[in-house]
Structure formats: structure tokens, C-alpha cells
Amino acid sequence: MQVTAEHRPAPVPPPGSRGIDEILAAARAQLHRLDPERAHLACRAGALLVDIRPAAQRAAHGVVPGSLAIERNVLEWRFDPRCPARLPQAVDYDVPVIILCQEGYTSSLAAAALQDVGLHRATDVIGGFAAWRIAGLPALGPTPLHRAPPLAPPVNTGWARR
User: Fold this and answer.
1) What is d(CA 81, CA 67) in angstroms, rounded to the nearest whole number?
2) Which of 33, 65, 76, 158 has the fewest beta carbons under 10 Å from its own?
3) What pTM did the predictor assign?
């Protein structure tokens, strides 16, 4: 009999570890999260909207005009005012940064990480880009992925014929 994941007992977590639901709840407890409309107003007042979704996801779903595309794997380096790899916008710890992901989960973790770096005004958009679209706020795209044209059939010059 083959043992599948659904028939396996759950592993015992190591002492002191937390599940992702606990980590997410802790991150959100330190944020003043914004619904899409309030996030839009904050951006119009000067907050930076940072889209952390991968390029393929932005192409597939669209983007918010004027947002900064900074993928999640480099976010802290781009916004830490102490870091030589920081963006020109990362001038101090008071910069209002609003993080946007697709559905508002990864953005909460990312905004909490920016707060850990010292950006005390970092937060995220409740419901992410999907909620932004549903709210009818400005968005562009999606952008069709550029695919290479199909290859032409090989030219048969007759050399293989017998």
C-alpha cells in the first residue's frame, strides 16, 4: 500500500517554531493595513506603492500605473537607508511605503519585514492587486506574454529523398 500525504500523520513541529498562519497574524498585528481605496489616496498624497509580484504575475494580471516594481527577494535591500543597494527613494525611515502583492498575503509579510528594518510607516493593501482591480482603481494590462512565432516547417531540399 502506498502512503500518501493525506494518510501521513502531521509532523511534530520543532519547539519554538510557528506555523505560517501564526507568522502572518503576527505580521498583520504590527501593520495599519489599507483597503485599496485608502491605499490609492495615500499614493496620491505621496506614499510609494511597491508591487512585489514577479514579472510574470504582473504581465498576467496587470499593474498599477506609477507603482515601483521591486520583486520580493530584494525588497529589504532596496529600502534600507543603511544599505548601499538602496533606491533613491529610501531616504530615511519615515518614508511611507505601501506593499502590493496579488492577494494581500505576501505583502503583509514584506511590509512587516520593512518595519523590522525600521520603516515604521510600511504597510500593505488588503486583498492585494485583485482587490485593487475589483475596486475599479487605475490599472494597466494585463500584458500578453511575448511568444516566439512558431517555427516554419523545415525546408525539404530533396537531399533526404531516395
Assistant:
1) 20
2) 158
3) 0.82
| Phi, psi at 116, each rounded to 5° | -60, -30
Does 161 map to a domain? no
The pLDDT value recorded for residue 8 is: 85
Asked if residue 158 belongs to a domain, the reply is no
Domain that residue 111 falls in:
47-138
Per the CB < 8 A criterion, the answer to whether 67 and 89 are in contact is no
Assess contact for 125 and 104: CB atoms under 8 A. Answer: yes
> Using CA atoms, how far apart are residues 84 and 81, in angstroms rounded to an integer?
8
Chain centre to alpha carbon of residue 31: 16
pLDDT digits (tens, 9 = 90+) for 98-145: 999 999 999 999 999 999 999 999 999 999 999 999 999 999 998 765
Which grid coordinates are listed for 27? 505580521
| The total number of structural domains that make up the chain | 1
Contact 24, 105 (CB under 8 A): yes
CATH number at residue 58: 3.40.250.10
Q: Round to whole Å and give the CA distance between 156 and 43.
A: 60
CA distance 15 to 131: 37
Distance CA 93, CA 72 (A): 19
Q: With a cut of 70, which residues of the chain have pLDDT below it?
A: 1-5, 144-162
Q: Is 12 contained in some domain?
A: no
